[in-house]
Write a structure and sequence with these properties.
heterodimer, A: alpha/beta, Rossmann fold, 2 domains, 7-stranded mixed β-sheet, 5-stranded mixed β-sheet, 38% helix, B: alpha/beta, 6 strands
Amino acid sequence: MTDNGSEPRIITYRQALNETLRAELERDENVFLIGEEIGVFQGSYKITAGLLEDFGPKRVRDTPISEEGFVGAAIGAAMLGLRPVVEIMTLNFSLIAIDQIVNHAAKMHAMFGGQVKVPLVIRFPGGGGQQLAATHSQNLEVWYAHIPGLKVLAPSTPAEAKSMLTAAIRDDDPVILLENLALYNVKGEVPDGEQVAEIGKAAVVKTGTDLTVVSYSRGMVTALQVAKEFEQEGVSIEVVDLRSLRPLDRETICASVRKTSRAVIFEDDMLSYGIGAEISATIGEGAFDYLDAPVRRVAASEVPLPYSKPLETAAMPHAEDLSRVIRETLDATRFKK
Amino acid sequence: MATTSRTKKKPASSGQSATELRSYYTKMSLVRAFELRANEMYARAKIGGYCHLNLGEEATVVGLTAALENRDYLYTSYRDHGYAIMRGMEPSAVMAELFGKSTGVVGGWGGSMHMFDMSKRMLGGYGIVGGQIPPATGAALAISYRSEAGPNSEAVMCLMGDATTNIGAFHESLNLAGLWNLPIVYVIVNNRLGMGTRVEDASAEPDLYKRGSAYRIEGKRVDGDDPIAVRDAARAALTKAREERRPVLLELMSYRLKGHSVVDPARYRSKEDTDEAKENDPVPAFRGKLIADGVLTAKEAEAIDDEADKIVTEAVQFADDSPDPSVDKLFDKVYSTPVTNSSTRLPAEPAVVLS
């Protein structure tokens, strides 16, 4: 049973997003969906399946292939009080709209003296591993996480997909919701009834005492799996899910590392200048005296991701990479259990 | 070149009420006085950053804003001071914004390029070339989302310079507006130069009003030195937007009196071009026309100019006397929905503060 007394159901991440969009369309007539192939085609990844039929073309608006145009149009509609939820087919294509996202949506509230709100959600999946080659496999969420004025959320479970999308739609600021191609079919418990995430908070999703793994989005699936394997060896791993890439909950990260004295960061993106770099610097500043080993990062190789399966696999971080780096970190301090 | 020079029609005043004509001259005189003073204040380092003036575009500014109803929304480029004032923002608050003061229209957050007032439906000057066009198109989408077409409908006017018609945002937006039947009037203020690049050196179709045809959007070229012609064309376009929900593309032929911005000496312009600009300067031309037509006396015109000067002097005084924004409020406007863990760190403060 959940807090509000209803039974949790086991559904996919995709279904959680679809049901949440439906619920928010029903709740608020200012909410509308806009993007390429979201209506007649029902979404490139079928997140919007059935919604055009039930809500009509005014609420579920198909667009031409014009990311800059329709993201900017959503911004303008939001300025007048509508609450657009934009789907960009993948993160990679958001680069075409980056002027509107970074120079406009993120800046308007402050630069226009607090007079205008931009209650906009931009959803897109990132991530590699689908043999889509270099231009269709990127994890550039850090570009958006760098920008004040944006809020950037990365749900890792179906339950979080529901609560974070709900929070994003009801928030008065532009929110980027980072999804992941590999998560759409992942199943999990999702409580019925209204679930609204608190933006800006990380979560300790598994407690432990020996080492902290920090991750987000798809990386969380691997992190939890590896933590469970170490549990069988008697090594207690704590897992922190960032959940919100901006704002970043530095306190939860540092509090965990102060307890465990060791940290490994697991991310799908490339290492240099990445989210792991920011976490590592945060730990250096907030838990230096508590560290028993250098902070390590497990991250993608610095190469345009190849199409070939063996090459793609070699360049992306996997569970065995995380296990190895956890062991090296434990060995670095002659950790004995 | 024939395609980009202004039509030579002189300002017409026949059939207009004398009160209206005098009010247009009064407004043009105020924009002129304001911009000359802004130029001076920039030279005296009271104004920082970039500063683009409407000098030479007064007829365009006054004609377009005269066509707008209070219920309409206006988006402009960064050359926006005159539009802000003509949309009803106080000259003192606009000058204070140029001075970066707390009493400025956006509290010192935007400066010259980012005049904004939600209550006047002036939805911003935009510093990125073409950046305003997709949001303006989206504002028109919001209007059509909420209301039916008709004479009382709201509409959007979106201004841009000639060089802006080469950026992708222009073409994507016109396509959306044409496809979705949006109530928006796109206005190109063609002052014949990008920064220093001539229209015909930047646009494969230098007759810019024709560029709407790719999207089945009606285009029209108008003499931008004639406030009446500008007003009438804009009114007709807005009516079409309101009643037929069809977008329109207007091209107003104009010319800057000075450089691209206040720091630009405009050495790329020939003496002939500069002389022509002075000769066609819309402010003395309109004044001369009204005097010739007996609408104004020279003395009355002088009194109007003096009054404009007085308003601007008071605006400068107000801006000078106003306090700077408080550093205590530096982080107040990053988000409109407050959020946990939002950074409020000054440069030398630590990134991590543990409670």
